[in-house]
């Protein structure tokens, strides 16, 4: 659903840019409360994983494909504020390095793909957890539904943005019907990927999943006839090793997906591209400012072998995203520690 330059007029793009900048500023502050020494490395990995999986377009209908948006996945794994930042980092890397999503449309894409999907999915996720039985299975089920809802929600958001600042004269009803219809189907794929990923992490390290916090019962001890909270045990070495293993496994998986599996992704246009072409929304599409990038269109310039070119581009993208994301999240965490007073309270 990457919106290219030319779909939305300049004033509307500027407004969404302000909205995106404000949301990122709020998210940077909110992420300080979500990130700690355990989850900061995971956040950078989540951004890299979303980048990799977004390269895997899957067929959803005749001549149409879809790909992960990632807002629900990021929000559930590392928290809604950090989730907005994760998807924003991915969109920034894609726009600058790979000419995917217009640079003047960056505010539109962050608003639509990072903010809307994260806010909507996390609200649905929390609402479902409030009524479902406490347990890991409920986290997986809620993840599926939240991700499913988030994709058509993003389609609705794009339709509203297009209604305000679209550069072509296309009936809004046709745009809404086509966008929501195809993105409901794409949402099924999003939901499956999100639920499988969240379920896998919850199975091995539920303590690292932001959305699963609070589901475990605290250990109680009976002392002199009264129940008291048991003292927190120090994390065993095995747990620290498991966290490191999880990170390495996630990174290797991302590299394999982007560097090898992506070659077999569907070549059909995604939902927005298909709707734009069929209804004439793309008549005023502008050339991307990074069209001459060495990695434009997810290929390495001057590498003639398509499989090798795409694979190298994917690996480079994962590497750049995990480095950039990890640097940002470690900086946010460092700021958090600086904002905590010697008594342990936030300043």
From TrEMBL:
InterPro entries associated with the record: CbiM/NikMN, PDGLE_dom
Residues crossing the lipid bilayer are 7-28, 40-60, 72-93, 113-132, 144-164, 176-204, 246-265, 311-332
Keywords, ordered alphabetically: Cell membrane, Membrane, Transmembrane, Transmembrane helix, Transport
Asked if the record carries the keyword Iron, the reply is no
Q: Name one GO biological process term.
A: transition metal ion transport
Instruction: Please name the Pfam families in this protein's record.
Output: CbiM, PDGLE
Residues forming the PDGLE domain are 244-334
This protein's membrane topology, according to the annotation, is:
Multi-pass membrane protein
Record-level GO cellular component terms:
plasma membrane
* Keyword Nucleotide-binding in annotation: no
Give the top-rank taxon of the lineage listed in the UniProt record for this protein. Bacteria
Q: Where in the cell is it found?
A: Cell membrane
Q: What is this protein called?
A: Cobalt ABC transporter permease
